[in-house]
Specification:
Blueprint (H helix, E strand, L loop, with lengths): L1 E10 L2 E10 L10 E7 L5 E4 L1 H9 L3 E2 L1 H16 L1
Parallel strand pairs: 1-5
Antiparallel strand pairs: 1-2, 2-3, 3-4
């Protein structure tokens, strides 16, 4: 199964996450199919995503992890406000 999840990078105590499309069996920081966005909790939770690629992968059957689904929902809500 293909999932959309966060891959941790950055330094110790300064996390930075990449939003990646990967096989569910791959480790958290391991191989991925495509990088489609970023999440930086240190900068007030700045979340960016390539919407066209997210739509493409979800149409192909990729499922977001619980955390990614929550971030996407929060991002859509804040975009609707602005």
């Amino acid at each position: 199964m293909v999932t959309i999840r966060l891959a941790r990078s950055g330094t110790k105590k300064r996390p930075f996450y990449r939003l990646v499309v990967t096989d569910a069996r791959s480790p958290r920081g391991g191989r991925f199919l495509e990088n489609i966005g970023t999440f930086d909790p240190a900068k007030d939770g700045v979340f960016t995503v390539k919407q066209d690629r997210l739509t493409y992968w979800t149409s192909k059957g990729a499922r977001p992890s619980e955390t990614v689904a929550r971030l996407l929902k929060k991002s859509a809500k804040s975009a609707a406000k602005a």
